[in-house]
Each structure stands twice: as structure tokens, then as C-alpha cells.
């Protein structure tokens, strides 16, 4: 549904509303959605969620970036970072250059509108994921087809500088169609910011880089998964002592124990029901803010798999599957309080809202969805 904003009076910042029928202030959650699309199409959408009513509505759309397939925002909410997942691009001189780009957009504090974007090359094809260190002084991006990871120093004004470091991967896996070469699929910093973890789908490895006292980065370690697993994304448990990997090609979640940048592989569980025999590919994995549940998306089965986390061991127990009410859920996000889940269904052009049932952790359809063209990333602030 597209929310009718005439029912609200705007007070101060754009994210504060006073519902007339409730007579009380309700703070909206700010939602940013990235999607596949050409530069002249709406590639980034801003929306808002009113927690008190469960109403989700679009507020603005932005063009000017090709294939904005992953988004991140700084803690202050003043800058939005995005990948432009392309094979090549037009550089500042108007020439065609190889590889994709990252973009950063200033956000107006009052209107929450995006300002003009600043672009930097990634020196690798199809950048598909990016993230910031906890201290927000470095940004890393994974180049899926470029077999590389590129890192940028973040300036005091929050803009990324020119590419500073580039790590190249080499290797392959048993799946000849999908693992013919390295495919770094995401980047994740450890909670203390000392280590960078890079799941490489093509190599069946998680590559690990370490930061030295001089704030430079170098190769540190690597851990292997089952051949043909295809690790895609990682999620840290709030304790920092456990890491979960979602594996795209064999539809599993693998648990690792973590200590000082070293990962030790533990059990793997399927994200699919035992009765499901058709093709399906995992995409995103998240841990609930309280650490009690792990969620993973299935593209094909078109569902969110839910796992309970053992309080003492952090082992996973399957807790169920919930349809995303759309096709090909590439990405989803949890609200900071863990009360809401928003799923992006890429192939049905829909973004769907769910409430999280507190005891079971299961997402319950909230009756609200909005139309967004080819949505592939959801960010909740």
C-alpha cells in the first residue's frame, strides 16, 4: 500500500509524525531500498514505517545510479553508500572504464533527501556488497566478477577517498557454471574492526584480512567450506564469538566459532524443508538483535528460514519457514529492535512487511507491502 501522508502533520525532522487519530507522537523508521535498474530509472527508494500502526509507505525515489544492488548508511544518518553493480562505467572524463563503481550521497538532516552522488571506481566488475568499519574510517567492497576486494579510506566529511587497497583472489570450485573463478560476494568487519571477512562463492572459502597498528590491511587467514557450498554472506552473533555463513549453492547455513580473526567450522544445516526438491539459492542471513534467532532467505523456495540459537552453545535449531509472499527474496532487513522484518522480492517487484512474533521468532505477515521495481536491498535506520 502507498501511505496517504495527508493524515499526518510533519513536525521538525521529516521522520517525526503526529497521528491525529492517536493523539501521540510516533517516530517512523527510515527505510532505504536499492534495486536493479538503469541510471534513468528509480534505483534507490526511500520509505517509512510507522511502528505503532504497521504502515509502510514510499516517500521518494532517486535515479542517477545503475544497479544500486547494495546500500549502507553511516551511524549519523548523514551519508548513504551504494554499489553500482556493473561491468563498466563512464568515468569523470566521459570515457568508458572497466569495472563498477561505489557512490556516496549526502543526506539532508531535515528533509532526508539525497544530495548529488560522488562516485569512485572499484577496479573490479560487478561490485555487489559494501560495508564500513565500526569506527567508519574504512569502507570495503566486494567485486563479484572482478575476483577482488577494494578498500577506501573515509574522509572526515564521510566521503570515500580514491581506492586505497585492492586484494585479488585466485581459485575455483567444483560447480563449473558458478565456481569457474573467484567470486567475492560480500564483506564483513569483525565487531572490533580488526578483521575483514570475505565469503568467496567461487572458491568455497572465507578469506580473512587483518588491520595492523598502522591501520593498513593484509592477508591473514582463510577457512574452507564444503566443496560446492558457495558461501555468500556472513552474520555475527552479538557476542562476537560466533559467525554464521549462508551458502548460496547448497542452501545451507554454517556456524563458526570466532576468536581473534580465526574461524573454526562447526555444523551446517539446510535452509530448506526436507520435502522440497526443486532449485533454490540462499541470499541473505541476519541474526536478531538479541541473538536468539537466525534468519536466511531462500530464492526458489521463496521463504525466510528461521533458526533458534542455543543460549549456551550458539548452535542452531530449525524453527520453521515463512513465505515472503513474492518471488526471489534476494535481501531482507530487521528493525533495530527486532520487531519487524522487511523482505525484498526481486522478481515480483514487491517489498513486504512482517511482524516478528517475540516467542517463536517467526515473521508474521503484517498485511502491508509496497511496489518497488526489482528490489534487491533493504536498509532500516
UniProtKB/TrEMBL annotation:
Gene Ontology CC, one term: cytosol
Pfam families for this protein: Lactonase
Domain of life: Bacteria
GO MF annotations in UniProt: 6-phosphogluconolactonase activity
Segments passing through the bilayer: none
Residue ranges of the region described as Disordered: 160-186
Family named by the database record: Belongs to the cycloisomerase 2 family.
Protein name per Swiss-Prot or TrEMBL: Lactonase family protein
Organism: Cohnella terricola
Source taxonomy: Bacteria, Bacillati, Bacillota, Bacilli, Bacillales
